[in-house]
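Async update (no meeting this week)

Hi team, since we skipped the sync, here's where things stand on the single-chain job. The sequence we agreed to prioritize is pasted below, unchanged from the tracker. I ran it this morning and attached the output directly underneath so nobody has to dig for it. Comments welcome in thread, and please keep replies under the output.
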Amino acid sequence: MNEEAVKQLTKKGCMVGKEAAEIITEEDLERIEELPAAPMYISDEMIGQIRERMSQKVVVGSQGGQVTEEIETEVQTASGSQVQKQKQEKQSTEESEESVQESETADIDESAVNNDRSEDEKRGEDSVDDEIYSNRSTHFRSDKTVKLRDDRRRDELDTKVEIMDDYEVQNSEKDVPEFLGYYNDRYKKMKKLLMRRSELRSATSIKRLERRSEGDEAAAIGLVKDKYSTNSGKYIVSIEDKTGTFKVLVDERDGQRIVQDEMIGVSGSMGGDIVYANSVIRPDLPIPDGVTKTKDNVEAAYISDLHIGSEDTLHDRLDRFAKWLGTSEASNIGYLVMPGDVVEGVGVYPNQEEELEVNSIYKQYEMFEDWVEKVPEDIQVLIGPGNHDITRLAEPQPKITEKALPRVSDFNNVHLVRNPQTVRLHGIRSKGITNLMYHGYSFDEHIDKIKSLRENAYEEPYRVMVDLLKRRHLAPSYGSNLLSPEAEDHLVIEEKPDIFVSGHLHSHSLYSYKGVNLIAASTFQAQTDFQKRVGHEPDPGKVTIVNYKNRNTEVKQF
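Output:
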């Protein structure tokens, strides 16, 4: 196995099949890196296709045998329909293979989201590149999308929406007992996730840890109570469980990424009344054993942050999008997913009234209903709340009240969901695609706590989403969001989703992490005065489209 090549590809978000990992070479790696975007899954068949492409290069020499130029032979292409048919046949029979787990501390390679294609690649579109590109999940420009064709009408698709974690949100007053119950539930769930890590199988309670002698091996799990830096640049972290509190010395890199209240595991050796940590372990996602797909060629569209009622709402782009949904080009789209900030709201921040087009929140929702009515009724629409919507700000947020949406709440194709919410889409003749919807109100505070995220997460919000997946919690620090302590902590990511979609930051980015499509959905609001003051450039009018049959992702600009 070429471990170094596999490691490099894994850093880019690629899943490398077991057989592919055994045969991959440096030349294969170089060819993959030349692609305009990293493939989501690399099989041994794909490597064979890459090598076939490389073998089609002809070297032409002059007198004396010196090489003067290199000419690539033309690859004969099939018609568009034939190529698509070949892709669909291969995708229906493709088997899932094991990939190599990414190191939890590995940096995310920026090349994994490079979406630019050269003009030659745009014109070429030969069968080999078609095969390679069919496995990628990346950010495409609107004029350079992969078009997926299906002769069937959308109304012949059996769409289905299943609410997986259908919990009740309590609006009663909360006090100390509710907070204790909430954190006990978080501790129980997070400990279960951490105990699955092989490094923590020997973990013991903090009370037993105190009995260990200096130099003994030590492993423990606990909530981060506090941390502070030392003169040497390292950090002393206090962790606690139900039996007590203990100090852990960690290096600078680990210490900078630890946030208060998160659940971590530590492994190292005893140093008297402190553990010298060799590693800090987070629950993270498991090693993927393949990518979940559907049998039907059905697609889902993802948008966020419409902010209807703002003077900066891009109504013309929203209308173009709704009109496009009714065209033959959009005939495969069966689902429209929107994780919050449907409207601009009223009184959300000081002097907001100066930036409102409509100063009645119910009128704002009425305008949103007018827009939803333009969406074809055979598309299932999922609507979650954000921090600008009429629900409470504390998370988990209940559904947007039917009082605010009296017309569309009665539509058979409209589903009002909570925030966060896990839904399974299109589980008809297959397992369906699990979507974790979270607006992202905690992102701002979480980004502010971690230096590496402060540097680039607003421009590339997938980075904060990856970080939270590693921690298996949507708001690990108390105070990163307003919290309503329910009987259960619904912000723990107990099960691995197929797709994780968020909004809130008004940027747009895509990434693939351990078999999960990460979608930071685009806004339909132009740059606000506040964003101008803080220097934030939104990325509006983009619609992310995921094909559930092959998990390919494209982006259309409206």
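Quick observations from my side:
Residues 176-194 form the longest helix (19 residues).
The chain has 16 helices and 21 strands.
Reply here if anything looks off.
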